[in-house]
Amino acid sequence: MRVLLVDDHELFRAGFALLIKELFPHVELLHASTLSHGVDSAMIDHPDIVFLDLELPDGHGCDALVRLKDARPSLPVVVVSADERMETVSRCLALRAMGYVPKSSSPEALHAAIVAVLSGGVYLPAASIAGLRRTIDMAEAPARESGHAQPTHDGAARWDAPDLGLTPREYETLAWLVRGLPSKAIASKMGLEDITVRKYISHLLAHFNLRRRTELIVMLADKGIKLGTLPATDPSRDRDSSADGRQRSG
Q: What domains does the chain contain, in order, with CATH numbers?
């Protein structure tokens, strides 16, 4: 497993790296002190997951996340920030982060974030989940009534399509959506038309009785739903799918 740490404070990176090494002894750690260096590393070194600070010398706030996800749409990015405001957490989720770890978090939270994201899930601290639910006024019931029972899983368990009452195509769409891909890039990955993927996304929101992708992400984090590891993607394929999406939308 390769983990890329993008933070301009060398002391924080060193401490963060030591903590990750304690949790995952065989991990390979990559370091970047600027956003430009982080983007280059994401394209060249093929990390499996990125931990990104929002306050960088050449990338302020959520712009840093935008630039990194634009370069590598399918790369899992977890934001690590001292900013714990709900509007910042919500904004990062809307910009397709797969998790948010406050810098005040415990080592256990870091471990949970890595395990969740690499298993196809989302990590949010309990306080953020509660705050986001209040902010976006989500319904209490996370799933619509259907012919499929919603099972209770252990936090480490992987859910599959029948568990969630989804077709295989809907399930794959959900997995890519959680990974952070926009609909056009998902269409390129799945070999489908963009309009078909948009229909799948609409079905997913209706299935879980939700209105927006952010609500879906919060629900997945709250329930500990993990969708499994998607096929590895290389930077050139990422770039091609992004360009394809922009061309289709033009």
A: 2-135 (3.40.50.2300), 141-249 (1.10.10.10)
